[in-house]
Structure formats: structure tokens, C-alpha cells
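Problem 12. The chain below contains 146 residues. Write out its predicted structure in C-alpha cell notation.
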Amino acid sequence: MQLALSKRTLYGIVGALLLMAAWQMGEQFGRSQGAAAANPAVTQKTLMHVFAYTPVVGATPADFDAFRKATADMVGKIPGLKKAWVGKLRRPLDQEGSKREYGVAMEFDNEAALDVYATHPAHTEWVKVYDRVRVQGTTTIDILGE
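Solution.
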């Protein structure tokens, strides 16, 4: 009987130690993840390539679906392209006599990755799909993270 009690006590102690270790690891992880969330002034050291465009009047929903897919497909094909967003602008931009109604944002590791993107074969193929949904000319900004 005494031996069984000792095993239970031992298992209880080991279980408590494992629980405390897991709790401590969770606390450390939470602190490391929460630092950026707690400080909204923290910025990314990446480059954001953002552009707005005027849609082609005759572009179909299938054309826009193909464009969204082609944009998403570049991530993973072009080195340094981390993320891409495609969407309608909250408010159209009046630019050069036309309205820019849609936009794209792409996050790159750095300026060198943006340069690779500009000449990459996947980008060349993407432009063919992009040209089906946009009027020539865009409003583009590149934001360098600090």
C-alpha cells in the first residue's frame, strides 16, 4: 500500500512540475509576442509596394478572379515577396483625369527583392493578367520600413 501511495505522489509531483514548466513557457512566449502588439509604434523593416489602378470597363468577374489568383500565386515564386493584398479602395483616388478604384499591396523583404520582382518571369506572366483588369497607368508608392 505504501509503495502505491509513493508512486501516486511521485506522479503528482512530476505532473505539477510539467504543468509549471508549460505555464512558464507560455508566459515567455506571450511576452515575446505581446511586445510588438503592446507597442503600436513598432514598424516592420520590410518594403511595401502599393499601387492603385483604374479598372477596365469591360473586365469580367472572371478576369478579376484570375487577377487575384495570379497575384496570390506570385508569393512563393518570387524570392522576397512575402505577402500580397488585392482589393477595392475605400475611397477612389482622382488621378490624372481618372479614378483609381482598386489597389494592390505587396510586402517585400527589402529593395533588392522588389528589383527581383520587376524582372522575374512570374511577374512578366502576372502583368498579362493584370492588363486585362486595368487601364494603363497606376499610382504607385513604395514604403521603406524603418
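Discussion. The two ends are 67 Å apart (CA to CA). Students who got a different answer should revisit the alignment rule from Section 12.3.
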